[in-house]
């Protein structure tokens, strides 16, 4: 047997993430004792209609979220307990809502920092209705082998170590959350473990006090002794002493009280829980509480450290008198399945990776590019072209190479609004489309006829140079196998109207003391083709391609230089249209050659 | 509980219709001089000047001056501002009207588990302390407000007669309204006096303790709460409080000058048991500290730095019970960082560190602590099998 929380307890949790975390812990306990999850519903208006997924064993259980307690109890009429995980400013309303629902008999509030007045009103309301209001600031309630409410009991391993999978003979009542676990552990090591442990919260006026719970334990035949962990301040311990001393009690009472240090501290210096405040004339001091408990007949060890032996002594007496028998431990206990991460850490499982990367790693405190930390690159004067070199070709390029790349990017960042890419972006921007989609619309235009010839140009020039072809051999090869030479020819520019960008880039690269076999070959090709036709000049794609091949970039990366550079322009166009609040545009009819058949009658459907 | 200084305390009482003397709170003489030009009463009344700080025994320290004219009040203000008393510098002075009176009474409202109590005595000042049996009380249930009749009955019980009983009842009624509406935990006026000029009851001195947790519903609480220690918070304490207000979970730190055993335990409950153990062993606490509610590691690191910076410490007690949900590995990570930082700054020389803890990821956390030995820390690490406060016994046995 147990008190407050048992096998019939069905729980609704009021609150968001903190409540979900508690539900996970509760599910671990349910799994340990081989019982279904005792949480049936959440109340959290922002997520009403959705579900929270709670791990149970190796599976997940979907628990519905409702707008109100009434809605939850309507769908789950067996609900009888509510855990409140709502912020201090709204906790009162939430607690009242739960108390006022006829299904709910026990409300336990975890919320800390609840105004005293609210806590008092909640407690009084519960007493009026004959219900239990536990908390605020309660870590929870746990009945060994039966029911866990909240995170009390800690991690799964601790549940097992503290033998919470089966009931013992000791009841526990504490103000402190952390100490509740400590006492549960001590009871399992020095005796046969607990029946129920209750965190009543460390506030000045907990909704339910020691006496109410002592009464419940007194009426629970399984509980043979109760351990109270008290604190200075208030008079709850004195009241417990009064209850214990009033008549012969079935349960034995063991109690410790903290706060003796107060006697030797500077006057007025107080610390600990909110409720740990000593009164004016020493009432509520650790000593007065401790004395009162001793006087009532309770076993009061002098220090916390002596608690274990005191519990042991009590347990031995109970054994001797035949009131309890040595517990039988189950042969096997369920083991909580490990997550993949935990299992890997323990070297218990091998996972075949899904992808493989050779360029970057962001698992540390900052990204590393090809092994180099980004901040160190910055601090040592490296720039964007170097990052391109690391991520596209896995090498630290030279200053000179970086300068070439920078110039290529600056020259191809934008080419006005009329070209396919920019025009598509502008069209999308005017239709009210967002940045990434509009830029993507422009990107889609990059292909064999617009901007996307860099890779192919580089490939063929490189092929010619690698195979030591003459210009004539190359042109013949291209004509036979591929068609027009990528990188040669321009829609507008010609020999008489040269492309300034090409001139600029070629001039700069030629001024450097580097070998440029591809560029040299491309210029030779131009000499021949431009004689055939005025506009068959080496265009900017072809120039970039030749230069980039010459400085060692892999052919497959070459289109990337145009894509990257032009993205700068496309973003600019989108922002520009947005800034102007441009209107939707459409083609004028006079810009269309309507070559479709004239309007005619539709024949009947056959 | 949050203590409120006299000025804002009087302000709250005035809000609920209680007569209080005219008063001003100033931070400089110039301010007082300007206020003197704007307020007739400052020129025309006898005045009291008091240091407006959370200080005990202000009378003895010469920080209360009575029966002043405006010039003398200016002089007193000048003298008080900037005075150093222990760790507190006087930055504010409250100058109030001296109320000519004959009789002194007592009235208080306090929160109890059952509801609240209204206390009345027909004596006041220091007389109350020595005649506590003359204080009469009215107990009220949670949610219950006192009726005028019940308060009159209480006043009569306390020895008030005739119209004065009615007045005292009305005064207590306003006190209760203020107490109830302002989320107070304790309100005390001592003395309540009969103002000679109009026979009205006036609150001369007030103790106001509010529920700091209720601040969210009192937008007009525009004042800072005073330290309850009879001293101001130190810079280190304020820094930890600033961190505490920002995080999930909590970190707490109070310095106790002269101690040699530094505390860095987890949990509001366990921390006090650790402190008790130190005192029981004859040790001297250098501080109180506590972290709980799974605080972020950086917050625990800040707390650790403060603890390591305490002067003259010989032992640091990194104690804790078996945590429910505080991640031991993570919070210990913060402590370890704090220790390393302190060591690199030349602190922690000849300081022994004692660790005991359990809870989520306890093994990993304790292993990380043990590894500090290799870095030259004098550290002793124990797990859940060592009873909670045994590390204190071990620490204080070692000579």
List keywords for this structure.
heterodimer; A: 606 residues; alpha/beta; Rossmann fold; 3 domains; 7-stranded mixed beta sheet; 42% helix; elongated; B: 399 residues; alpha+beta; Dna Ligase, domain 1; D-amino Acid Aminotransferase, Chain A, domain 1; 4-stranded antiparallel beta sheet; 13 helices; 25% strand
The percent range for helix content of chain B is: 25-40%
Q: Over all CA atoms, what is the radius of gyration of chain B?
A: 26 Å
Task: Give the largest interface pair and sizes.
Answer: A-B, 69 and 57 residues
Low-confidence stretches of chain B: none
CATH architecture of the largest domain in chain A: 3-Layer(aba) Sandwich
CATH superfamily of the largest domain in chain A: Succinyl-CoA synthetase domains
Low-confidence stretches of chain A: none
Structure description:
The complex is a heterodimer of chains A (606) and B (399). Chain A has three domains: 11-264 and 274-320, Rossmann fold (3-Layer(aba) Sandwich); 360-412, no CATH class; 420-579, no CATH class. Chain A has 22 helices and 16 strands. Chain A has helices at 17-32, 69-75, 91-99, 116-129, 156-161, 177-190, 210-218, 236-246, 286-295, 307-320, 340-345, 374-379, 384-393, 399-412, 420-430, 435-444, 454-466, 471-481, 500-511, 517-532, 540-550, 558-579, and strands at 11-15, 39-43, 51-56, 59-66, 81-85, 106-109, 132-134, 140-143, 147-150, 170-174, 194-199, 225-231, 252-258, 360-361, 368-369, 372-373. A seven-stranded mixed sheet of chain A has the order 3-4-2-1-5-6-7, sandwiched between helices. Chain A starts with 10 loop residues before the first strand and ends in a 27-residue tail after the last helix. The mean pLDDT of chain A is 94. Chain B folds into three domains: 22-97, Dna Ligase, domain 1, CATH 3.30.1490.20; 101-217, D-amino Acid Aminotransferase, Chain A, domain 1, CATH 3.30.470.20; 235-397, Succinyl-CoA synthetase domains (Rossmann fold). Helix content of chain B is 35%, strand content 25%. Chain B has 13 helices and 19 strands. Chain B has helices at 6-15, 29-38, 40-44, 70-80, 127-130, 148-157, 162-181, 235-246, 270-280, 297-308, 328-344, 362-370, 390-397; strands at residues 2-4, 23-26, 47-51, 64-68, 84-85, 88-89, 93-97, 101-111, 115-121, 136-141, 184-195, 201-203, 206-210, 250-255, 261-263, 287-292, 315-318, 352-356, 378-382. In chain B, the strands form five sheets. In chain B, strands 1, 8, 9, 10, 11, 12 and 13 form a seven-stranded antiparallel sheet that branches. In chain B, a hairpin with a 3-residue loop joins strand 8 and strand 9. In chain B, helix 2 (29-38) runs antiparallel to helix 4 (70-80), helix 6 packs across helix 7 (162-181) and helix 11 packs parallel to helix 12. The longest helix of chain B is centred in the middle third of the chain and has 20 residues, at 162-181. Classes of the chains: A alpha/beta (606), B alpha+beta (399). Chains A and B meet through helix 4 and helix 6 of A and helix 9 and strand 16 of B.
